[in-house]
Design brief:
Elements (H helix, E strand, L loop, with lengths): L1 H20 L28 E11 L2 H9 L2 E6 L13 E14 L2 E8 L3 E6 L4 E11 L4 E6 L5 E5 L5 H4 E2 L4 E10 L1 H11 L9 E11 L5 H4 L8 H12 L9
Antiparallel strand pairs: 1-3, 1-11, 2-5, 3-4, 4-6, 5-6, 6-7, 7-8, 8-10, 9-10, 10-11
């Protein structure tokens, strides 16, 4: 009898212990991805697109090209956003407003895009009465390309330029992008312009325009961080460096 009671007690004890030995529910992994809806981590410094809020650019025809065009009877005029050509002029230049875009740091060079007002330049051959309107300018800063429409055709690359360094082009105090560069005409654009005007004034790889850009950037952005421009020492830092360099026991210069 006593053996039967002992066996019953052992079975009850084993049955009670089994739930406690069951594995615990799996806990969320520490490396699991964040739940849906959680914002992604911020991009590293220097990879931010800084909005362009306005500004202007001056496009001027180099004197050598202007003289060659005149020799072929071609003059330059302005054309407004409605396509109306203004009276002829010989300055060879036009100012265009910047209506949008963005600037980035692309490998230490200026990247992004500038979009200009819908007006542009009209090329007029007085001998043949042929006219070509060049409008819809955009500057692809990352590719070093000037794009535009010839008459109302699709936008094409009409010229290329050497991309300037980002640090030398950004004025962080004034929140401005400033560029001053020459643009050379592409072979495809030179062929189209010559055919449309009935002339041979354009040569692929030759000068097309000289542009001076003054673009206003979003002043609320920390440009030095967003464009990874590096540390620019404050005047107090510069003073401490000078004192350390002149003294025999001064602190070592900062790196």
């Amino acid at each position: 009898m006593r053996a039967r009671h002992l066996a019953t007690a052992a079975v009850l004890a084993l049955t009670t212990a089994l739930p406690a030995a069951a594995p615990a529910p799996a806990q969320p992994s520490a490396t699991a991805p964040p739940p849906a809806g959680r914002s992604a981590p911020a991009r590293p410094a220097g990879h931010t697109e800084v909005p362009v809020e306005g500004g202007s650019a001056r496009f001027a025809t180099p004197p050598a090209l202007l003289a060659a065009l005149k020799a072929h009877g071609v003059v330059i005029a302005n054309v407004d956003a409605q396509g109306t050509v203004t009276p002829h002029h010989d300055s060879g230049g036009i100012s265009l407003g910047i209506k949008g875009g963005a600037v980035t740091n692309s490998g230490g060079k200026v990247g992004g895009e500038l979009r200009f007002a819908d007006s542009g330049i009209a090329l007029i051959n007085r001998r043949t009465n042929k006219v070509v309107k060049v409008t819809g300018f955009t500057v692809d800063l990352g590719q070093g390309a000037l794009r535009a429409r010839l008459d109302r055709g699709p936008k094409m690359t009409v010229g290329t330029f050497t991309r300037p360094g980002i640090a030398a082009s950004i004025d962080t105090d004034a929140a401005r992008l400033r560029m001053d560069t020459g643009i050379t005409v592409t072979a495809a654009a030179a062929a189209k312009l010559n055919a449309a005007l009935g002339t041979t004034g354009f040569t692929g790889g030759g000068p097309l325009l000289h542009v001076r850009v003054d673009a206003a950037l979003d002043p609320s952005v920390d440009l030095a961080t967003a464009l990874n421009l590096g540390h620019r020492p404050a005047p107090s830092d510069t003073g401490r460096r000078s004192a350390g360099a002149s003294g025999s026991g001064g602190e070592p210069s900062e790196r």
